[in-house]
Amino acid sequence: MQPPIYYTPDIEQIPDDEAETIAGLNAVLKDILDTTSADYGHAVRAVHAKSHGLIEAELEVRADLPSELAQGLFANPGRHPAVLRISTNPGDILADSISVPRGVALKIMNVDGPRLEGAEGRTQDFIMVNGPVFSAPDAASFLKNLKLLAKTTDRAEWAKKALSAVLRGTERALEAVGGESATLKTMGGAPNVHPLGETYYTQTAFRFGDHVAKLSLVPVSQTLTRHTGEMINAKGRPDALRETIAQDAAKGPCEWDLRVQLCRDLEKMPVEDPTVLWGEEISPFRSVAILRAAPQPGWSEARAAIVDETLRFSVWTGLEAHRPLGSVNRVRRATYEMSSGFRARTNGCPIHEPATVTLPRPDLT
Ligand code: HEM
Predict the structure, then answer these.
(1) Domain annotation for the chain: domains and CATH numbers
(2) How far is CA 20 from the centre of its chain?
């Protein structure tokens, strides 16, 4: 196997018009926020608005890591409090019979080291979805898809129903716009899988201390793997995912592996284009830490009041050693700030990086 490449800032190629792309994305996302906040009388995230799992956890960094993996947050073995938010990607709160991709946001606390510019607190966030590649090669192409869609449909309708299709790929998105509700029901073509059984990927690249990597979160305990491939029946159950996770996370301790895929070849494993699958035959994912959760009610209104309302997750909240890389990651800085800032202002609830997050845990009987 080739050795991992070394990180240098010139790995990134920043196009001249990136600031315009960011402004364009923010305008489109602001439309979504205006629409949904007017509908709900309350602001929710511009995408991934609906949470389905809110889980208090602990991340244990492995003690036996070779030097190429003992980087950044993973340089020292130890335990960190963590919180995991499981979501689906639309910008509003849809019935779960509309089957859409799943996402996870992981916040790791008590993390030391030089921080990214503007990153508050002592936290490190990692954000992933349940597929290995992103739908657009760069932020400008992603914005084009969004705009195209916005033109072909009524904005409110689009904001409510079609964003997840864009995140999945243009072709399907356009089908969804032209189609009737039957198309929308299978929008994105995502199977209605159990989120606890899924493997999640960053899709985009990050600095990994001296190196560059993508990350994944893999279910390993039987309490999770028994749900891999399980389909959720959401017929007549608009909140089927919440109900299912609330029950299943309470049944036993859960364990995920946090894995890292080091970049070993910048041609075959590009940093700017997240549609290119990094081959595991060139560089396999390897475990750097274990995420553990004690049995707990995996979702509740009381938990949502804490995690959905008082927290934000962003790949730009964290260490310089895990700097987000590539076009799609760079534009996420201003767009996530805009969305979480809008939520904080509209809801009159300031959002700060936490030192600990304790989620309500009524007696499990
Ligand atoms: C140009 C590309 C992208 C844009 C413009 C974008 C934008 C956003 C915005 C505005 C939010 C809401 C932030 C908040 O209100 O706190 C968000 C959340 C989220 N995004 Fe992205 N995103 C992009 C790419 C990605 C990618 C590549 C992934 C994963 C592989 C991802 C996964 C998520 C997840 C899981 C959340 C929910 C975070 C939470 O639970 O708070 N996004 N995104």
Answers:
(1) 9-347 (2.40.180.10)
(2) 24
